[in-house]
Design goal:
Helix content is 22%, strand content 32%. By secondary structure, it is an alpha+beta fold. It folds into 2 domains: 127 residues, 2-Layer Sandwich (Alpha-Beta Plaits); 128 residues, Alpha-Beta Plaits (2-Layer Sandwich). Strand 6 and strand 7 form a beta hairpin.
C-alpha cells in the first residue's frame, strides 16, 4: 500500500527543520506504528523480514514534497514557508493491514527536528494512492535518493556506487530479488517468480543524469554517518512482481530511512525536496 500524508503547520512565519530530516522522520513513522501495533513496530525495527541472512523492513517514504518557491536552504537548515506539504509512505504489507496502518497516521500531531530547530506538524489528510498497472517494462522517477553500495575487502565503510557503474545494475537486482524472497517467505506474495528468469533479461536503463544527494544520519551526534544516494529517472525491465516489490518496499538499500522511494513517470510527475 502507498498513501500520501498532507502535513499542515500553523506557523505564519514559516518553519525551520534540519536539512537532514530523514532519520527523525523515520523514527516518527516507527513511533506512529508502535502506537497502534507494538508487536509489528518492534518486529520492523528490531528484526524485519528475513531471507538468506539478510533483513529488510519493506517500507519506504519520499522526501518532503514542498510547493515550488516555498522553501530555502540555509546551511544545514530547511526553511519552509508553505502551510501544507506532503509525504508519501509506502509499505509492502498484507492487504488486511492496509487501512489499519493508514488510519494510524490520520490527525497525528508530531514534532520534527533536532536540538537546533524543530517544527510542529498535523497530519490533516491521508490519501490512499491507487496502484499503478505493473508491466514488464516501466519508467520511474526517484522521490528520494536511491542507494546502491558494495563492500570492499579491508575497507571499513561501504562504497556508494553511482548509477552507470559497471556493478550497479547487478547489485540493484540482487537487492530487489532478495527483497522479493523475503516477502515471499513472509507470505506477502501469492505468486512465485519463474525460477528460470535469466538475469540478463532484467535491465536497468538510466533516462536522466543522476544527481548526487548526500544524507547525514544522526546528524550532529557522535554517531553521525553520511550515506550517498542519487536522484534520477530510469527504465526497468523485470517480472512485474519484482517491480511491484520495489515500488512498495523501495528500490535499493536503506529504504526505511527514506531512500529508494520511486513513482511511475506516467501519468504524472512528482517533485520533492
Amino acid at each position: 500500500m502507498r498513501f500520501r500524508l498532507t502535513l499542515s503547520t500553523s506557523s505564519v512565519r514559516g518553519i525551520t527543520i534540519p536539512l537532514n530530516y530523514q532519520y527523525p522522520l523515520s523514527a516518527w513513522i516507527y513511533k506512529t506504528i508502535h502506537s497502534g501495533d507494538h508487536a509489528f513496530a518492534g518486529f520492523l525495527h528490531e528484526k524485519g523480514f528475513e531471507t538468506g541472512g539478510k533483513s529488510f523492513k519493506l517500507f519506504t517514504f519520499s522526501m518532503l514534497d514542498i510547493p515550488h518557491g516555498k522553501f530555502t536552504i540555509q546551511g544545514d537548515r530547511l526553511h519552509i514557508t508553505a502551510s501544507e506539504i506532503s509525504l508519501d509512505i509506502s509499505f509492502l504489507v498484507p492487504q488486511a493491514m492496509q487501512h489499519f496502518i493508514s488510519g494510524l497516521f490520520n490527525n497525528q500531531r508530531f514534532r520534527l527536528g533536532d536540538h537546533n530547530s524543530q517544527a510542529d506538524f498535523l497530519v490533516s489528510h491521508v490519501e490512499m494512492l491507487a496502484p499503478p498497472s505493473f508491466t514488464e517494462k516501466m519508467k520511474f522517477k526517484t522521490l528520494s535518493p536511491l542507494l546502491v553500495s558494495h563492500h570492499i575487502e579491508g575497507v571499513r565503510t561501504a562504497a556508494y556506487l553511482r548509477p552507470g557503474h559497471h556493478e550497479y545494475e547487478r547489485l540493484f537486482f540482487d537487492n530487489l530479488t532478495a527483497k522479493f524472497a523475503a516477502a515471499l517467505q513472509a507470505g506477502l506474495h501469492v505468486n512465485k517468480l519463474d525460477a528460470d528468469v535469466p538475469p540478463e533479461t532484467m535491465q536497468l536503463k538510466l533516462t536522466s543524469d543522476p544527481k548526487t544527494k548526500g544524507i547525514l544520519i544522526k546528524a550532529n551526534t557522535p554517531q553521525q554517518t553520511k550515506i550517498i544516494g542519487y536522484l534520477f529517472e530510469f527504465e526497468i525491465t523485470a517480472p512485474p512482481l519484482l517491480i511491484y516489490t520495489g515500488y512498495y518496499a523501495g528500490f535499493g538499500e536503506k529504504n526505511s530511512l527514506g531512500l529508494g522511494c520511486c513513482a511511475p513517470l506516467s501519468p504524472q510527475h512528482h517533485t520533492s525536496t
